[in-house]
Fold:
Amino acid sequence: MSTELDLSGEKGLEAPSKVKDIKTKTMILNMGPQHPATHGVLRLIMELDGETVVKCTPDVGYLHTGIEKTAENKTYYKALPLTDRMDYLAPMMYNLCYCLAVEKLLDLEVPPKAQWARVMLAELTRLASHLVWLGTHAMDIGAMTMFFYCFREREKILEIYETCGGQRMMSSYIRFGGLYEDLPLELDRMVKEILDTFPDKINDYENLLTTNRIWLNRTKGVGVISAEDAIACGISGPNLRGSGVKWDVRKANPYSSYEKFDFVVPVGKNGDVYDRYLVRLEEMHQSLKIIRQALEGMPEGPFINQNSKYLLPPREEIFTSMEALIHHFKVVVDGFRPPVGEVFQSIETGKGELGFYLVSDGSEKPYRWRVRAPSFVNVSALPKLVEGRLFADVVANIGSIDIVLGEIDR
Structure:
């Protein structure tokens, strides 16, 4: 006797051969703009099929700073502090790029000492930026200890900012023609302390993460983007170099005497989250190498161009010279009028290629003040990284491209 049951005749049941195909629908999920792992007020509109990301649409604009249009209604000098507020984790990088653009517009020469000091400060800023990236990226994935370690080291760099310009972050220390004032006497000791202690600290980070099985599972083979796709998307910096493209503005189009420094541009092979991590770690070692060269080879001489009608007179002269006081008043109140023309200047920041495009109509205010911000371009490549992959990997991908919303929403 057969023990099989025939349920085809039961009410409400159909034979297996007659069961209709089950239809499913995708789900729309909003990630952000309040999600902590989006590193700011970034909203991602995610279309999910189960655990797989079908479509990802970045929605920016929630920070609504309007810095570019604000700068067009200020004199060139008064627009300088606005540059600190874009990538607020690397303010001196923006100071440097903006000043280089204005100096190109004015055909203004910068003394060698100021150029080397700018390089040293820019590389310290790169270190600070990468430390924030590593600490927050690791915490997003689950390695919370790294956050405390990285911010401990970053504090040393912020102390240098405060010593130079009086502010821990928004110092506006780099000025047209050079620096705000000469390098402080205690700077040598503070930078040497970083050079002596940071290499071992970076090695500690590597020992904690590079061969960690959990870290490898969350980063290797995740968020892969080919060199061709990376170039097509326009991404730059460590994200581009992680895909094997050896492009660094410091080498390709040197500025501020970078051509005189010896350093290596690290590149990856696989274009995944892990390779982007390795590239940034090696960049930290290379930044220390550049800082050491800048400190040991710092030229003597003035810290700012002292013979230009466009610049503020030395502060000590204001109190003893009527002509200097009048000149200071005119530059601060009325600004200066650069020649008619347009310029573009780019530099290599910790997040990629930053560019300033300025148009002068001969007035004291810029006719056009436009920024090519690396984070804005890099976040546009996020759909390429996450679509067709697991939703659980989205956080790792966001952290790996290292965005800051201040330079996205300008």
